[in-house]
């Protein structure tokens, strides 16, 4: 369960949300780095309530809207990952990206 922004912005609730966001981002990075099989990564993302925005043979983009996190995976043709990025965003409309510190 994730605590998300409600009527109260900032303060303690904002700090909890940021901690949850960072924890999930670290968890996803660890999963990607330790799991060469995309099928397992896909299942892990689904279990954390990520939604696929694009899931092609060369690029996959997954979004966790409650925490404002996206995962971008660039795949190699022979399997594995050519690269990845796990980042936070400040809203889907503007696609503003705030990279993790």
UniProtKB/TrEMBL annotation:
Highest taxon above the source species: Archaea
Name by which UniProt lists this protein: Halobacterial output domain-containing protein
Originating species: Methanoculleus submarinus
């Amino acid at each position: 369960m994730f605590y998300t922004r409600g009527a109260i912005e900032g303060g303690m609730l904002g700090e909890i949300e940021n901690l949850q966001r960072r924890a999930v981002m670290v968890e996803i990075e660890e999963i990607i780095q330790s799991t060469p099989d995309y099928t397992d990564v896909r299942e892990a993302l689904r279990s954390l309530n990520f939604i696929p925005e694009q899931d092609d043979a060369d690029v996959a983009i997954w979004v966790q809207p409650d925490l404002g996190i996206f995962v971008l995976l660039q795949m190699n043709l022979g399997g594995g990952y050519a690269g990845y990025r796990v980042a936070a965003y400040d809203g889907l409309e503007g696609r503003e990206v705030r990279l993790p510190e």
